[in-house]
Amino acid sequence: MKPKTLSNPKWRRVVFKISGAALAGNCQNIDPKVAMQIAREVTTACRLGVEVAIVVGGRNFFCGDSWVSATGLDRPTAYQIGMMATVMNSILLQSALEKLGVQTRVQSAFPTPEVAEPYSRQRAIRHLEKGRVVIFGGIGAGTGNPLFTTDTAAALRASEINADAVLKGTNVNGIYDCHSANDNVVLDHLSFREVASRGISSMDMMAITYCEENGIPVVIFNLLEPGNISRALCGDQVGTLMDQAGRIS
């Protein structure tokens, strides 16, 4: 039996933010099993009518912050290298999705004409309306600015394409309750204000603030758990939901 919400998706259009670290799985760069699992579950959601745009990180190939700390490398230079890593991940995901018959377009504000379209909001929306998946490169490649995180890129693109939600797939189950005696308790619903007051670091605060200001719900969930991606894309309860209201007593 499929969850009821999978046959009646809550979201019409979503931005799916994929953590580069989660994409690595048990490998050093990108785990083919994880890439194909993502592709299969995105395909399931697309066939149910959900319009899916993706922003993917690049940490599995290159972590700019680590290089800046270890070598003193100029920060903009390090982040520009990270931008190229996000484009590599985008092309790999495009290949996995198209192998399953899902038409996919990669768009980037970082010029890579041989492998990606230049970013165009109107063209991206037309692609989504035609049932295609659109992948935005991420850091810099998604926003044109190398100093933005992929979280912020996802929030920005979500606003621009009128997405109903930002869904961040990571390698953790959601936001944990640090005030609980049991450290493994995952909070299922928080308001944006609660997130700020708790000092939660599961997502970049600039991205959270941007989503709050634009009324875009955010879900943080574990994409490595089978079934979680399609459930999250369709609006089923998975991981932690952040929105304006938060938990209702």
Automatic annotation (TrEMBL):
Q: Which GO terms describe its molecular function?
A: UMP kinase activity
One cellular component GO annotation, for this chain's record? Answer: cytoplasm
- Enumerate the InterPro entries for this protein: AceGlu_kinase-like_sf (IPR036393), Asp/Glu/Uridylate_kinase (IPR001048), Uridylate_kinase (IPR011817), Uridylate_kinase_bac (IPR015963)
CDD domains xrefs: AAK_UMPK-PyrH-Ec
- Asked if the record carries the keyword Cytoplasm, the reply is yes
Q: According to its UniProt record, in which pathway does this protein act?
A: Pyrimidine metabolism; CTP biosynthesis via de novo pathway; UDP from UMP (UMPK route): step 1/1
Domain named Aspartate/glutamate/uridylate kinase: residues: 13-222
Q: Which domain of life is it from?
A: Eukaryota
- Which reaction is catalysed here? UMP + ATP = UDP + ADP
Broad class of where this protein is predominantly found: cytoplasm
Q: Where in the cell is it found?
A: Cytoplasm
Keywords for this protein: Cytoplasm, Pyrimidine biosynthesis
Q: Which family does it belong to?
A: Belongs to the UMP kinase family.
Q: What is this protein called?
A: Uridylate kinase
Q: Which organism is it from?
A: Vitis rotundifolia
Q: What is the lineage of its organism?
A: Eukaryota, Viridiplantae, Streptophyta, Embryophyta, Tracheophyta
